[in-house]
Amino acid sequence: MGNYVQNLSARVNLIASADTWIEGDAIQQLQNTAKLPGMQYVSGMPDLHPGRGYPVGAAFFSTDYIYPALIGGDIGCGMALWQTDIAVHKANLSKLEKKLGNIDGPLGEEWQDEMANSIAAQTGFQQALGTIGGGNHFAELQSIDKVYDAPLLDALALNKQQLQLLVHSGSRGLGQFILRQHIDLHGHHGLAVDSADCAAYLQAHQQAVQFAMLNRRLIARRILSRLNANGQALLDINHNLVLPAQMHGLQGWVHRKGATPADVGPVVIPGSRGDFSYLVLPLASDLSLCSLAHGAGRKWMRSECKGRLSPRYTVTQLSRTKLGSHVICADRQLIYEEAPEAYKPAENIISTLEGAGLIKVIARLRPVLTYKTRGECCE
């Protein structure tokens, strides 16, 4: 593992190499969470960055208490990978972009039966189903750019001759509603695991996870329908949730906030819209609390992005990337906030996880067409 794991204390570590950009505020937030009652171990991923009181890109293992505030308001957020039947050599980006159009609004009548038959849809937030949202959420057509392990790629039934579709979204307003309910009643305090309040939160939490998975499926199918294409779901992995787990010989609860599980098979770790994503096979370890980075991780605060980049790039220029891909984002603020320059290099994140002995890389994925939003930012 070399110098890829920094032990900040007996119960706190950081998976990072010497050249991994990590803000001091993020490390301080990481260490602060270790002081919460019942918190046993905390592990920061190489994409660690400051959040609203708690770091993003980290896993937390507790006994006796769970902490909804650590999970945040986007319960169930995650990524789904679909294999499409769109031939790479026939992909015309301008035509694909035109066909896709606007998918920010509610789903049409043709989708209502499917939503009505889902328990996850009976939440009062049905209008958000099938929509991506704002922030760092996206849907992206990708091509397989480089293969590192052909047998593993073949086992997943991924076809180099066809485009893939990666969808990153969560539970939308439902997760925010559940978090607000908790904060109104309990502030940022934890919930005793044997309490009625904990049981009620976990029930709502599970509903939000189901909602998020349904949302990603509907987004993917909506996009494929617009493109007159077919597709098959291969992976769907949540990176914001709390689950019972055994770590370091203890039975407790693992909280993931922007952290991909390492015990569910292959996962995708995306870069920014102008960088490569990576399909990897996790090598589960208690060292990282069975978790991995969930992306490249922010390097700049959102509030400073437009000031840094607007003197250098127009909105039109930001709709094209150095890798030749197109970006759909009509929100003028968001397109600056989500610029590739605002994120860490994905290659550094991957090499750090490799160096720490936590992953085996299967393939590198190149962005082709990234959809952020056509209208106003949805969150």
TrEMBL record:
Catalytic reactions of this protein:
a 3'-end 3'-phospho-ribonucleotide-RNA + a 5'-end dephospho-ribonucleoside-RNA + GTP = a ribonucleotidyl-ribonucleotide-RNA + GMP + diphosphate
Indicate the residues that form the catalytic site.
H294
Pfam families hit by this protein: RtcB
Keywords assigned by UniProt, alphabetized = GTP-binding, Ligase, Manganese, Metal-binding, Nucleotide-binding, RNA repair
Q: Which residues bind Mn(2+) 1?
A: D74, H137
Residues annotated as coiled-coil are: none
Q: Which domain of life is it from?
A: Bacteria
* One GO BP: RNA processing
Q: How is the cofactor bound?
A: Binds 2 manganese ions per subunit.
Annotated EC: 6.5.1.8
The residues the entry assigns to the signal sequence are none
Tell me the cofactors it needs: Mn(2+)
- EC class (word): ligase
PANTHER family to which the protein is assigned, alphabetical: RNA-SPLICING LIGASE RTCB HOMOLOG
This one is known as: 3'-phosphate/5'-hydroxy nucleic acid ligase
